[in-house]
Design brief:
The protein is built from 3 helices and 4 strands, in the order αββαβαβ. With 88 residues, it is of the alpha/beta class.
Length: 88
């Protein structure tokens, strides 16, 4: 059952210009929805593109559930993986 329900993480992704720390920046704004856990972390990580994402990525987890350690590790490792400024 966990593998079947794990694919239900999704996101609304916008590229926009925002003020971040008193500075205007081009950002990728990711509003994550659904459950992030061992069977959905790959789908979550694949929402990011190292070559094309701007230098600042903002993650909004308001409508997401972070269920287990693999989800925490995926989120924590994201900034190292994509080499960007990640704001949660």
């Amino acid at each position: 059952h966990a593998w079947d329900s794990g694919g239900h993480v999704d996101a609304d992704i916008e590229f926009k210009r925002m003020v971040v720390n008193d500075e205007k920046k081009d950002v990728k704004y990711v509003h994550v929805r659904g459950a992030i856990f061992f069977s959905s972390t790959r789908k979550f990580v694949n929402m990011f593109d190292v070559a094309h994402d701007p230098e600042t990525v903002i993650l909004n987890f308001k409508d997401a559930l972070i269920i287990d350690h693999s989800a925490v590790a995926a989120i924590q490792g994201l900034s190292h993986l994509i080499g960007k400024e990640v704001i949660i």
